[in-house]
Queue: 4 jobs
Job 1
Amino acid sequence: MIATRQLCTFYLDGHLFGVDAQTVQEVIRYQEMTRVPQAPLAVSGLINLRGQIVTAIDLRTRLGLKPRESGKLPMNVVVRSDDGAVSLLVDQIGDVIEVDSEHFETPPDTLQGAARELVQGAYKLEGRLLLLLNCEAAVELIAD
Amino acid sequence: MSNEDAELLKEFAVESQEHLCDIENQLLTLESQGDNMDVALVNTVFRAIHSIKGAAGFMGLSTLGGLAHRAEEVLNRLRNRELRPTSLVINTLLKAADRLKDLVDEIETSNEADVAEHLAALEFILTGESESTKACVSVVDAPALAAASPAPALYQPDIAVLSDEALREFLVESYDNLEQVERDLLILEREPTSESVLNSIFRNIHTIKGSAGFLAYSTLERVSHVTENVLGCVRSGQFGMDHEVSECMFRSVDAIRRILKSIETDRTDGSDPMTNLIANIESVQAMKWKAANPNSSMRAEKTNAPASVRVERSPTLPAPAAPVELPPSQPNATPSQTAENAPPSKSTDSAAQPASSVHGEGSAADSTIRVDVALLDKLMTRVGELVLARNQILQFNSTINDNALYSATQRLNLITTELQEGVMKTRMQPIGTVWSKFPRLVRDLAAICEKEVRIEMEGKETELDKTIIEAIKDPLTHLVRNTVDHGIERPAVRKQKGKPTEGCLTLRAYHEGGQVNIEICDDGAGLNLERIKAKAVERGLMTQDAVSRMADRDVGNLIFLPGFSTAEKVSNVSGRGVGMDVVKTNIEKIGGTVDLQSKSGLGTTIKIKIPLTLAIIPALIVTSDNDRYAIPQVNLLELVRLEGEQTRKGIEWIQGAPVYRLRGRLLPLVDLRHELGIAHAPKGLDDDIVNIVVLRADDRQFGLIVDRINDSEEIVVKPLSKQLKNVSVYSGTTIMGDGRVALILDVMGLAQSAHVVSGTRDRTLTDSGDRNDSNKALIHTLLVLGVGPDRRFALPIGQVTRLEKIAIDTVEHADHQEVVQYRGEILPLIRLADTLGVPSNTSDERLMEVVVYTESGRSVGLVVDRIVDIVETELIHLRPAHRIGLTHSAVIQGHVTDLLDLPAVIRMVDPSFFQDPINA
């Protein structure tokens, strides 16, 4: 049986990533942030989202990708977590894509580093790969 | 007429009105349901009427009781489906309920009121109507009909039918009753002859028994019944309330609580029929009774006991009061009623007087309502949001110059503040709610430890936010346990030391500067500092070297270290080596501090300071490297600003660590930018202007260097997200007026990360506020000033706006007065020495110490020779002063100090200062 699910997609350093559309609360453009000195590196800052304070996590840093070129503003993908909303900073937002489980494959063992834990696998779309991000693990950060 | 009686009557009135209010709608619902009526609802109505009946009977309100009794019988029939809720039945019940309401409203005349019409109507339903409805009722038990007794035990309510709400109500009520019984029993132990207390116990147990009977909780009913019997005997003077009896009463209170717990969990009163306990109570009663009445038979007296309650009340009552005025329209009670009730006239009179107080406040039931705590929490959150929105709008005021907007925002500001205060008040609870369980705890613990301990409480009414009350419950309990177990000596030891054998544990609570102070004092042995030192080394918590350099004060606080316990043997009370550190952590978690002071042989005082509320706190906003941070006002001591020359001279270095001499003491400095890792070298010290925020962490002071000090603001505290929980330098986040997020600094965490709190320097300041003195005057925070070679003056720190050092050569003259240009305004100067006619000795220095005072937008500078210190002290040895400008003389830090009346001093120089505020 083929199970389909909807993924909300976005781009990071040229790669296409996706998270379960169900977990996404909203997508908003870049917001001014308050930086948090001494916080884990991936925490970019705090956003006031209509009175709710949301921690923004830069997925580039989180995944060990190279930093965004200066001048380019990230987008916020606000996802729900058991500790309230968390914003994931991404380069660019993509479409919501319906994917089939038959195209899914777990990541190869050669995948290393932080990405190894955070990428659950890849959907083989026509012409490109869609990497499925483990959202829960991505927002799990412990102070250095 | 005693106050207790008036109180009782008032309580009864409130309760009854509450019951009656609900009954009306419930009866109407029953009528609309007709034959499909909800039995649980009938139960609710029945129970309400039954409560009124019971209480009325106890208080000698015979007319009320009689009417309630009849109404109850009708409801009983309804309940057993022997009657249908026809409109006639419901109408009659409604009328009876209305009449009951009237009677409760006019308690003083209720016994003379005419209820014959209503009694007859109810009677008619019981006799006539029941015959005519027989046909439509499947089962009619003739004998049951004939027996017109209320006999709650006659029917077995279907427990499953009983609504959750009714059950919860019953449980809440019963727990309340039980708590009252426990409190009263403790009082009774001290004053075994107090009749009002005994009455109260009896009444509460009786209520529990009544409800238990109605709800068919037979074990509960039996336990409360035998308990009531014993109390009845004590009431009627058959034997006294000695230790054995009260022990027995406590046991049954515990048993009742266990049963209630069991009802709470699975709706049954437990599988244990408690026969042992019941037999035990009965045997105590029999034994006591025999001892007191060697020649009589037990049984007859035992059953009589409860009935004698009302009659026994009379001795406490004063002689019959003047006859109560009767409204002419109300004839005397009907013969049938007097025959049934025939109340002793005394109890009628007893009801008369307090009733006026009930009446005076209007319908008492209208003045209180019960509200779900969740709703209050929600309101509080909303108010928090409103405060944020208000702050945001206030910001526009500075950018948009519009009068209409200005006045509107000012109103918004005012209303928001009031609303915030109001909502906060609804969540306030007196600390007595936590303390109330301590007398029992102390009593039981003392018995286990074979000690004699008396507990005293001061400031029970001090109010705290509900969440804080909950948070301090466990730490306080732990501290009280510890005090009884470790603090207070055994009677023999105390005697040896010449102290009374009974130790005293004092709980004290009071408000001070937006915080609540709670003290737990004992007059026990005090801490054994040597043993604590040895233990700390033995446990590897401290090195021998560090311990030997420690001041006594710090040694005492070692017991708050994790894994510390000096108890030689682990008792089942305390001493497991966990606890004190948990106490400390828990209190710090809610922004509080714990401090311990101990005097060997004299006792220990543990002082807890906690904020009133957690949700909205006053904070100082500072800027560092263009980011704003909030510092809770609680940690703030003072602000110091160094400019130009002062900066270079004021900051000195000890092996790379910057310090500042604050009134002669070295204040370690911490650069916020450096601490947060924003700038790696502690630069900024070469700048022209340095802002130092003097903070207190764990009794140490340190100066935090920030770029700019913005303002004080009320901030709404929001918790840190999971990702930031481990960052020790922050305690939360908040949203500023412009909508941006700011971090709240955790001063304690900051001090730890900067290694400020690992030192052992003793702070002499707080030691001067020694509280072991029996004088319990309030602690004042005073600024101590020096003038001339040896004169000292002090004034409340609240009157001080700023402290400044002003160069003498900047002083100019205007209007025959010395003035300086200060922050774009003209600041008139007042030389304290000249004004008070005391010699001054600073004429040769280049800088003047100036205390800036501001009132209604106008400022004045008070020139003094020295700023000596800021002290927190009690004002003891006060002596009124006779000179204008001074209020009292007192001894502060061992010096005679005059307390300044600053407004009077200013008036001496400028009489118009307070009269015409500047029109902006």
Note: Chain A has three helices and eleven strands.
Job 2
Amino acid sequence: MHLMALSCQLEFALLKSVMSNLLENGRSVSAALFALMLAMTASAMPVRALDVDVSEYTLENGMKVFVIPDHRAPVVTHMVWVRVGSADEELGKSGIAHYLEHLLFKGTEKLKPGEFSKIIRLNGGEDNAFTSYDFTAYFERIATDRLELVMDLGADRFANTVFDDKDIKTELEVVKEERRSRTDNNPAALLREQLSAAAYTAHTYGRPVIGWMSEVEALAAADAQAFYRKYYTPSNAALVVAGDVDPEKVLKLAEKYYGKLENTVPTPKRERTQEPTPIAAKRVEMSDPRVASPSIARKYLVPGVNQAPPGVSETLDVLGQVLGSGSSSYLYEELVIRQKVASQVSSWHNGDTLDGGEISISLAPAPGVDVTAAEEALDAALHKLFKDGVSEDRVARARNQLVASNVYAIDSQFRLAYIFGAAFAIGRSVEDTLGWTSRVKQVTAQQVNEAAREYLKLRSSATGVLVPAPSKAANATSN
Amino acid sequence: MKFLKLTIVTLLVGLLQVVQAQAFEIREVESPGGLKAWLVSDKTVPLITMRFSFRGGTINDPENASGRSYFLSGMLDEGAGDLKSQEFQQRMSELAMRMSFDADREHFGGSFQTLSENKDAAFDLLRLAVTEPRFDAEPMDKVRGQILLGIKGDEENPGRIASKELLKTMLGDHPYARVPKGDADSVSSMKPSDLKDAWSAMFVRNHLQIAVVGDITAEELGPLLDKVFGALPAQGKKVSIPDLKAPEKGSITIVERKIPQSVMSFAMPGLVRSDPDFVTAYVMNFVLGDGGFGSRLMEEVREKRGLTYGIYTGLASWTNGGLLIGSVSTQNAKAGETLDVLRAELVKMAEKGPTEEELEQAKTYLTGSYALRFDSGSKIAGQLLGIQQDNLGIDYVIKRNDLIKAVTVEDAKRVAKRLIDPEALTISIVGRPEGIPLKTGEAPG
């Protein structure tokens, strides 16, 4: 039984039509919304697909096209991925990538504000977008025979968005409300933000995707426009289409609509400040009257898939799984079952990044257990693992589960499109994505144990502790 | 065995053209032992997904044992038959299967997914969980600790506080107002015998509904259904639910919390799922606040004024009652303004209903997007179970778009007048809201 949410990597800009899917048969509202948020959060975990045919093309302007046929239902998922995310933002402009994503719904030379989404709706489709550290992506899900319409609109938006002053100001208020809802109203989210800021000394992964409120407030039309001009050029983007389609036909349409877009700027270089080798354990502690019970969050900075030596990223995937995925994982058995110092513990690896990756651990002390004691027990359990290693059995189970997660992923068309779009965004090839399963199968217990000793060092970690604080404002209820 | 050929039809009103999209077949499978399930066989992905539920759920929890069903939902994968908790968990992870349970107001549900190559072993593990749960003391204490932490967390979660207060104000002691997790005292004193009582009250074959999708044939499924559920008793007691009477007069409750945003839940009396006006109400509410962008509330509160990231309304329709319920959050200084806009929109909808154009657009979207609910095995299973729970019939998937299309603007206006009553609007606000107009009998927070 899992009661703890994973940390959220994506900022979903437009939470729309989320309840209609769940409500018509009469389910309750807030639970449905919450379930959806969790589902979206989970989809940020690294998963790659196995038995799928992917066709890859490059248009004359350099834009990539990926087509993944899925003929189970007469629907199609259309995505445009841009190789720019919050980690590409200039100092002082945090949040601009995400703000711009909102503004791409505000109209073009041809379309009025909001008209894009309205047309999609009138054709029975759903649309949305999301921004992360390394990418920004826009998607529509719609009946297959509407694909051409969506491509026409998508290409127009990619090149011809206009930035009207009034709409821009109103939308900035919306983004500020989004930040208040997601982060400022939620102490655990605030701690995660502080933890990332502490973990990174130089790299922009230390900044929140949604941006610091002080900087978001100051974002202007000119900032958005400059960012758009610099990064939204066809040679910096990919079209991903998954669904009931024929790849050659999709290519023809892509040539017609996206192929005509011109590169007005050179392909932007992603030259980010790289994180120096970590040499000191970082620590943040936060107390807040809104916290009900203490929790610990830790992240280790590890090489991302682009930096790691061959096989290491897959070894870290297995390590994350072995450590804390599910109720039969190492840390869960050690801390929840055997020692009973924790109520929940989980861990995961995210190496699907342009630059560095992370292994994260999240822990809730058992009721009555001191948070310091719980943290000591966590470190002791990790030391035991360094010393004794984990069994071949455990590693075999973790490998199986990761391989199976690929098969489960194929069930979702959205997920299929996401996997190949995200791989493009961080510069990984289709072959690399498809080969992940066979590489995971080769990971040995010895490699996992060596990786644990090598990468789970406190000096490359940041630990965040969140504790309750007594409230001055009594929790009064009045009617 | 009954066969029924279904076709999902997408109507694109813009072109006045009917497109037959794709056919898939829903079969009602009856097992040798007499259990029924709806099945969509599809070999494309080597997976089997099953969703099932027993009538019951948190409404079954006795008053002195709140949270009993929820507790049970956390215990069924914590040991069964000869397998103790960790052995059971290890077996699940070896098989890379997925199994979870949940309790809502009127149903106790199960979700199950397996690779088809492991189906016999995975279904056998499900059999153990369903028919021979152990309720050992040690895992029970572990799960108890997790639930207690969850309860504590909810007490500080603005959204949870707001909806709990709202339901308390509107529904009082009615079982529908219960929070699934229950209260801390009750959870602290929950015994294995309580869970066993909950299990034997709900886990009976005539309360069971099943949907299966994926790489399995009807011939293979029948015997597996008997294997998993066959040992359960055939008959259980009828579940009785008291009628619901939501107050006709609205009120505002403020729960003060030092947070930058005011988080609001609001509701009015709604209607039951079997109400003849349900579909009309669903379409009308789509225009009001269930459409994301394009809904009146989203346009007025977010798009025009930038007051919020999102405002939504939806129908919570149960067997014996229902609510039209919604949520919005905004910075504290704008709480009053946000409520003013909300009220004005409710008055407008109650008096004039949706326009012809709005109604047509809503119908176009709702019919055109129906196929999107069937694009994965787990989504199809979820839809098929929901249709069974609501007793809508195996041909609902065919009929559904016609029901939506049949809604007229006169119907929609009548139902808007019937349901939307700004005087009955009950609101609960968590935060430090400013500019809330308080009526007599209400005190500021």
Note: Chain A has a mean pLDDT of 88.
Job 3
Amino acid sequence: MSLIFLVDDDPDVRDLVEYKLVQSGHQVLCATNGQDALVLVPEARPALLLLDVMMPGISGFDVLEQLRAREATKSLPIIMLTAKAQDADTARGFTLGANDYVFKPFSPRELMSRVNLHLVPDG
Amino acid sequence: MPDERLAVREARPPSAGAPLLATALARSFELVAGIALFALVATAAVVVMVPSSAASRVAFAVELVFLGLALVVLALLLSRRSAHAVSQPLHVLDGALVAIASGDLAVRVHLPGAAAEIQFVGESVNTMVVELARLRIVEAERTKDQRVRRELTEVVHASLDLDRVVQRAVDVIGDALEVDRVHIRLRERDCGRLAAEWLRSAEVVPVRSVSPTDELFALIHLTGITDDGRAVVIDDALDPERFRIEQRDAFEESSVRAALSCPIVVGGRVDGVLVASEQRAPRAWTGGEVTLMEGFAREIGRALDHARAFELQHQMVERLGLLDRFKNDFLAEVSRELRGPLSSVLGYIELLTDESAESVSDEQRRMLKVVERSGEKLLVLISNLLVMSRLEAGTFAPTLAPVDVEGMVRRVCDAVAPTATQGELLVDVNLEPGLELVADEAQVERALHNLMVNAVKFTPAGGRIDISTRSDHDQVVIAVRDTGIGVADDEQDELFSRFFSAKTGSRRETLGAGLGLYIVKQIVDGHDGNVGVMSMQGRGTTVTMRFPAESRGSHESHLLGRRRP
């Protein structure tokens, strides 16, 4: 069982992902925007972060960049959730240090397999 | 105006003149009279001296010979003189004609002593030279006029930048008319903006220092300019018989002593004035100058019209470009925004069908499948919208890499299999093993997916769909054949156009946004390939995509270039 942190501004998506994660036996903490995430994530020290890209205020890319700059979250596995299916966006995310991408709309099954992949080191 | 080209030089002979015939007669008369005189004297001598001796006869003969000789000399002198009187004026005439022929039009023939006929010829020559000189001046002015007009026309057509055009125009006019000042005012809202000014020298008072922002063409009211395009000619602005005191004051304030004012008429409205003015001295403007100025004003009016039309067009193009960008941004935004809710819809359906299997009845499961299929259809539509917005924005360049054709076809088949099964369709796959293609895998997969979705959509239950791949020389051929409703012959050409919507009823019922085939074509074109369709209504359709096996990599420029010239 791991602590997984989820950042997404869409409550329905949050509910769906949380449901699936809890069902798989994980603990879940949520934030609804980038500002909160920047405060809460380093404190919570989760095993993995699911981070939405398109959010009002600070975008997922900005959050990603700032978290990577901090010692506590430098090597935290981060999976970006995005509706942006453009190569340039993907490339930007990887450059900024994202571990993986899941494109919306995603299958909860597919999301879980990605989460499990990144929860197991060298897996 | 006196012209130095008209300065006269006189060609005149030294002697005085009398009629040619009379002169000749006089000369002959002198000769005959001399001979007669000789005869008379000789006879007298013979009578008086009557020589009887031989010696005296000899002496007489000698005297007679001397006398004869003297008379011959006299006659010679006389004839030379008469010849000189005729040839001298002719020589002068000859010299003058040679000078004229060589272009010297200042020559004048003056033959005071010559015969009347020769003097008449001389006067005719003089008349001719004067006329020639006048014609030459007219010709020179006409040439200058044409040159100036040509220059101005060039200026007007060289640029659509109005300020540059009017500045060049006043420069050309200033040089041509040799006036103190030339300026152009153009209507701008209700004012006459000073658009351009030319000054002969630093001593000339610039218009901008006198009236930088006048009311709606004070000059129009002042001089009575109208929209008929005719110039108002002011030889002397201080002429008390022509102008009232307040008008004269106004002219004086503006440092205008003489002026030629022409309206610049655009679309039947006076939209500006072209003014050439003298600051200090009156000037008698010639008809040619007036015509020239009116011509200039017309040209400038034309330029103004062109420039405004161009400006308007430019604004329109910019606005359309902006709208186009808005549209693309909007499409991209909408397609992104729609993905969020779809995540929930499809995600929860997956949870329901996967995990609540026991509590969902068969009927409910069937309903959930419908919701799921609809959600997936929506997703395809949204993806196509996004692709289209990227195509339109020119950011849909393919990223090339080796593609495992078989694997790609299998994935697409898996994706459409549930819908095909639902529609009771048989999908048959016929693949050439080990086929490889250098292309953008995601794009080619999308193209094939769109073709498969169409085939499934337009093939009635019990039909079949064949997917085949093969290599043909240096091309990879991917074909999708169905036994569906087909496309009418007259609609096949439009099949790949944007938002194509078939007239065929059954087809229209099932058609989506009409983007699928348009995107297929854009993707295949972007890979330097081609796509063709063969269809018979009621029998089925075959769509064949051909990709170069080794791509040439010109796609980016092709796609970008199409939208961003």
Note: Chain A touches chain B through 22 residues (CB under 8 Å).
Job 4
Amino acid sequence: MSDPALQARYQVLIHELRCVQCEDNSLADSDASIAADVRRQIRDMLNAGKSDREIKGYLVSRYSEFILFRPEYSWRNAWLWGLPLFLLIIGVVIAIRVIRQRVALVDNEDDADTSHT
Amino acid sequence: MNPRFLVPLGAFAALVVVLAVGINHSHEVGVLKSPLVGHQIPDWELPVLTDPTKSLGSRDLKGQWYVLNYWGAWCYSCRVEHPTLLQAQREGRVQIIGVDWVADNPDENAAALEMLSRQGNPYRQVVIDRDGRTAIDLGIAQAPESLLVNPQGVIVYKEPGVITPEIWRREFLARLPPQSAVPVANAGGS
């Protein structure tokens, strides 16, 4: 692409988007002819002055969010982003409580031992 | 059982349910569940395969049910699907409009014409998509893919792969009105 700023955005976009025909390749890495067509579509939209958001929005409207490697930040996806964090926090809380209980048990045993000496 | 075990057990059971539901739906994700289903088909217009001076488009087909079938002579799975489409054409419940997807095959036009004359032509009309822009606009990811469009222009179903006789009955025929039949005259082209 002629404009280096557009070229930079183009490179980012084609690495951020999935090749629609292959599950794990990006548009940049795919030899499929549909990938070449989608890359051309992106170039056309960049040259027409569309924003990254508009370009991604168009492709998501045709191919679903699956075309994005990274799911969008949205309320619908909040559970996807939040659930692992939520589970981690619960795990840490449980771990702390279990450790405290164990420490309390050990302290009780120590007291019991010392009281027998 | 100590009642204190019930909370983590319950949470684990809930997690299992959530993951099972997710895994159950994962094949749809892999197959790119189309966001266009349930919405108006984007306007399309493509040249007729046998006469590129004429074109056919969504506007010409307004008011009619049709199946839009993306295929190519280069596409092996499309050959597998071909007999099912021929049988569907014989039954005459809905017209099938073929879109010959050139992709990056220089001889596609000739190969497509040859395949249709040799193997039979299940299509009411055939158009050709040379530059692939319409394919992208319709959310086509690979061949074959088919869209079932109602007379209001809404995509009521998308088959993201080969149409088997079972799929034809269960997904296409089941969505047509009971009396539906292929219209008498071809949709006008300009």
Note: Chain B has six helices and seven strands.
